Amino acid sequence: MKKFIGLFALLMVLVLAACGNSEESSEEATDESAAGETEGDSNESGEMVTYTTDAGEEIEIPEDPQRIVILGMSYFGNLMHMDANVVGAHARVTESEVLEPYTEGIELIEEGNIEQVMNVDPDLIITFNSDENLDKLEAVAPTIPIDYAKWNYLDIHRELGKITGNEEKAEEWIESWEAELEEDREVVQEAIGEDATASVIEQFAKDIYVYGTNWGRGTEIIYQGLDVKVPEAVQEEVVETGWKKISAEEIEKYAGDYMFVGTGDSGADNAYKDTEVWNGLDAVQNDNVIEFDSPTFYYNDPYSLEYQKDIIVDALTK
């Protein structure tokens, strides 16, 4: 009996010791895990690096940004295509049927709503240099103001890759895109001829605009990608500035053999289409008018460009 009691006591000591060791090991593992998570978060955030803005100002930005707010809506699709860490975007990107699906899980920020920006705790903000709230945004997080007119659409894609640490992904798409355009260019040139011209116009409210070769709305594809010629007046008066406001009576001056026409905004009545000038254009007479959805064609990011290219190439080779 005494032997049994002794064995039982010894067994209990061993069990209690094992439990104690297990709890201690568990606590140590938990502590190590927590330390590892903290260290990992720190590494993801990365160090700060110096970046020179389009205005020549040197600012400090995260080397590896983890919480990007993109208020320069033209660049939303670029960042999403290269898997950048976007947590907030200008709400207007949802107007594009191409980009809207990519906004799931992202805070949609209304124009000028600084509180919304603050609530998503960004470590980097990217916007246009014309943003009226630059000072307020800079107080929230490092802010890069981009001059839209300064950048070719492919160069800004590369630059955004550099800013977000996705240079390789950005370059891969550019190489693939240029290869696609090379094939499409041959097909289009054969269909319309090497000397055919095209114009891109659009109405906002009561104003009509004609666009240059790098201002969204398919211009990058039509002129740069497919080498469709630019009408002389557009080349001389519009290309350098990117766009020009014109009257309905002036459309003929800027018209090409093909007319790409945007639907415009909600205030556009497109009354110019009822004028003698419009109906007398060669493009109208020859059924070479191609209409496009303005909110979807504003953009020149990879997703939008691939969508637009199919429409443009099909229209020119019908």
What does this molecule look like?
This protein folds into two domains: 48-165, Rossmann fold (3-Layer(aba) Sandwich), CATH 3.40.50.1980; 192-316, Nitrogenase molybdenum iron protein domain (Rossmann fold). The chain has helices at residues 2-45, 76-81, 114-119, 134-140, 153-164, 167-192, 219-225, 232-237, 251-254, 276-279, 282-285, 294-297, 302-316, and strands at residues 48-52, 58-62, 68-70, 86-90, 107-109, 124-128, 143-146, 198-204, 207-211, 243-246, 258-262, 289-292. The protein contains 13 helices and twelve strands. The protein has a five-stranded parallel sheet with strand order 5-4-3-6-7. Strands 10-9-8-11-12 form a five-stranded mixed sheet. The protein has a two-stranded antiparallel sheet with strand order 1-2. Helix 5 (153-164) packs antiparallel against helix 6. With 318 residues, it is of the alpha/beta class. 46% of the residues lie in helices and 17% in strands.
Provide tags for this entry.
single chain; 318 residues; alpha/beta; Rossmann fold; 2 domains; five-stranded parallel sheet; five-stranded mixed sheet; 13 helices; disordered N terminus; Bact_iron-sidero_bind; ABC_transptr_periplasmic_BD
Helix-strand makeup class: alpha/beta
Number of helices: 13
Biggest β-sheet: count, sense, barrel? 5 strands, parallel
* Count of folded domains: 2
Overall pLDDT, averaged?
Answer: 89
Q: Do you know the CATH architecture of the largest domain?
A: 3-Layer(aba) Sandwich
Strand percentage lies at 15-25%
Residue windows where pLDDT falls under 50 for at least 5 positions: 1-43
Shape descriptor reads globular
